[in-house]
Amino acid sequence: MGIRIVIADEHLIFSEALSKCFESVPGFEVVGAVGERSGVIPAASTGGAAVLVASEALIGQPWGLADEMRRRVPSCGIALIASRPNKALASRALEAGVLSVVPKEASLPQLIKAIRGVAAGARTISPDLLGPPEHVSMARTLNDRELEILRSTVTGASLKEISRELYLAPGTVRNLASSAIRKLTARNRFDAARIAREHGWI
Prior knowledge:
Blueprint: E1 3-8, H1 12-22, E2 28-34, H2 40-46, E3 51-55, H3 56-59, H4 64-72, E4 77-82, H5 87-95, E5 100-103, H6 108-119, E6 124-125, H7 134-139, H8 144-154, H9 159-166, H10 170-183, H11 189-198
Parallel strand pairs: 1-2, 1-3, 3-4, 4-5, 5-6
Helix pairs in contact: 8-10, 8-11, 9-10
C-alpha cells in the first residue's frame, strides 16, 4: 500500500505543484491539498493520510493544530517545511509531535526521504537542528527579577508600570530588561518575553 499524503500550505498553488511532483514518485498518493488551517484535519482524517506535509505558517506557531493532529489523527505523521529552521523551532515542533523539519531550500529528494521516514514513524531531522535550543542555556542565567520583568511585559505593561509594580527604580528596570534581552539574544523586551513564554519559563 502506498503512502497517502496531504499537503498543506498557505499558498495553494504550492500545494498543487508539489502534488503534481509526487505523482511521479513510486508509492506516493496525494489524497488532499489544502490552503487553510481549518482544512488540514478534515483532509488528513477523511483521506486516511499517513503523512501531512505542512508549511510552518499552517501548522507552526502557535502549535495547537499540530497538537490537535496528534490527538485526532494519531496515525498521520507530520513533516514540517520551515523557511528558516533553528534549534528552538525544531525543539518546539518535536514537542508538538512533528517528526520531520525540512528547510524550504531543501531539494525534492530530501523532502521525499523525509516523508518516507515520517511514514515509517521515524524522526528525520538534520543533526544541526537537534540538541537543546541556543536560548535554553542562556535562560538558565536569568535571575528572578529578570523573569518578573518579562512576566509583566507579557501583560503589556510599560517600563514605568513595571517599575511601580515591582517597587524598582525605572533605571533598574531598564537595566534588567536589557540584561534579559542580551541573555536571550532577543530583538527587544517583548521578543524576550515571547521567547520566555514559549519555552515555559514565565
